[in-house]
Design brief:
Helix content is about 5%, strand content about 45%. It is globular. It has one helix at about 10-15; strands spanning about 20-25, 30-35, 40-45, 50-55, 55-60. Strand 2 and strand 3 form a beta hairpin. By secondary structure, the chain is mostly beta strands. The strands form two sheets. It has a three-stranded antiparallel β-sheet, with no helix packed on it. The chain has a two-stranded antiparallel ribbon with strand order 4-5. It has a domain at about 20-60. The relative contact order is 0.17.
Length: about 60
């Protein structure tokens, strides 16, 4: 069954002084620092989290 989700434009979420950068806090010790350039999107993990890619999904693990 389909799930309804909210769609947000990156530029609407970013601070007006840094329109190409966004920091998402998802849970304790898990943040995603997202930078958008003309040709790519870069996701960094400030806490050094590890991740796996499974079936096109990024699964983030707490740093341990």
């Amino acid at each position: 069954m389909p799930t309804t989700v909210a769609l947000h434009k990156f530029e609407n979420l970013a601070h007006e002084k840094s329109k190409t950068k966004l920091l998402l806090d998802t849970k304790k010790n898990t943040e995603l620092y997202i930078t958008v350039t003309k040709t790519r999107t870069i996701i960094e993990f400030p806490f050094g989290n590890k991740f796996d890619i499974v079936s096109g999904m990024i699964i983030i693990h707490d740093k341990s």
